[in-house]
Amino acid sequence: MYYYIYDSFLNDKKYEMTLYRVENRLMDLGINGKIEKLTLLKSFKEVVEQAVKNNAETLVVVGNDKTISKVISFLPNYSLILGIIPIGTDNKIAEILGIPMAEKACDVLSSRIIERIDLGKVNNNYFISCLEIPAKQEVTLECEGYNICPLNSSRMISICNFGNIFRTQNFQHEKIYNPKDGVLEAVIASEPAGRGLFKIFQKQYNKESVFPIKKIKIKSFKECLPVIADGEMVVKTPVTVEVVPRKLKIIVGKNRMF
Amino acid sequence: MSVQYYNKFSNFDITSLTIFSNYTKIKALILYKFIINFNYMFGNEKGSKEIETIIGPSVKVEGNFVGEGNVVVAGMVNGSLKTNHSLKVEKEAKIKAEVETANLYLAGEIRGNVKVKEKTVMTATAKIIGNLETQVLSVEAGAIINGKCLMLQSEKQVIENKENKKNNKQLV
Question: Do B56 and B8 meet the contact criterion of CB atoms below 8 Å apart?
Fold first, then answer.
């Protein structure tokens, strides 16, 4: 049974026609199900728990990257298959998963290509794409048997499952890592060495450090630093990050990037 | 770093198709192999599955580092460094560690003993302050080795030597 959750921003009138087309397509394909619309009074967790009570097998999230981030943080605790219908702007996760926009995503749902992908876990909260931490000298990453210390020229630390897709508007040039390899990638980006125009030219030659990791502790000595998961959830250091292999069952499209 | 992409043809076996003639099957197989090789050679990373670690110039690693795939070092490493695959040490890299690897390409500096199972390539800027054990060694003019250099024999060579000794004894 399919259970559809609409994010609260879809209550806006400009999405009315799109939702109408999506619902019609779902009817045509025979995969329509119960629809829950989020409001200020209804939280995601309540709706998901209700879906589990109603014996839903597939939970379809209708919204954008933020919607997915919100639901991913706790969804793996329930044995549900996740489907996505991307609507609106900022749908990078759906693009990586090979899911087209709006009513075209219904065809992907009906073809049901299910993949089991890894998830990252930061202090009992899950994330699907990446974690971001500002790289400061007082930050240390403790892995199994060795420590990684960023030097002066480091700019940003990311712990990636897919890749740091929230860093730029156009993520086509970002590396996409495999979310089925059983490891996360700790990426430490460095500051471009040149100045002014030279900075632009040198940017492509600056090397990122990449460490495949299974578990890592991130500590900061002086102050607690913010750790941003999937561009949404914020935790503070110290944190333990680990990979949970093949934790999430998700419906993907043929054009997925992994 | 495991940059992997989905390969549509990964589970596809052309020979299982019975509707095509053998000639068509062979042509399709050659085309398929050409596409895969083209992707591999010219940087389209579809299909590459190796995990690679890059220790960049803005990073210092301390402790016992064990890499699961190829390792590239452009920064600093203190402690020990092991990998069963290849190790590339770039010009600006400084390693103060015991190093064990299958293959070594060295353009930077290593202070510590180095054990290489197969081949070592040292460029003009390479510097080893410590002992080196390797099977095959290539040194460019200008490279520095301050320590013992021990050339190991491969398993094949060891077996051949033993057989030669046996033969010589029998002849005597």
Answer: no
Cβ <8 Å between A209 and B59: yes
Burial of A8 (0-12, 13-18, 19+ CB in 10 A): middle
Structure tokens given for B4: 């992997």
Q: Where are the alpha helices (DSSP H) in chain A?
A: 16-29, 44-53, 65-72, 92-96, 104-111, 197-203
A191 Cβ under 8 Å from any chain B Cβ: yes
Give me the domain span that covers residue A56: 2-111
Tokens representing A74 are 């706790």
Pairing of strands B132-134, B114-116: parallel
The CA distance from B46 to the nearest CA of chain A, in Å, is: 9
Asked whether residue A107 is domain-assigned, the answer is yes
Predicted ipTM?
A: 0.82
Cβ contact (<8 Å) for B52 and A190? no
CB-based contact A132:A166 (threshold 8 Å): yes
Residues A91-125 pLDDT 10s: 888 988 999 998 899 999 999 999 999 999 998 88
Per-residue pLDDT tens over the stretch B9-64: 444 454 555 556 777 767 776 766 655 554 444 334 443 456 689 999 888 999 99
* Helix, strand, coil percent values for chain A (each to nearest 5): 25, 35, 40
The pTM of this model reads 0.78
Which residue, of A60, A79, A111, is where some domain finishes? Answer: A111
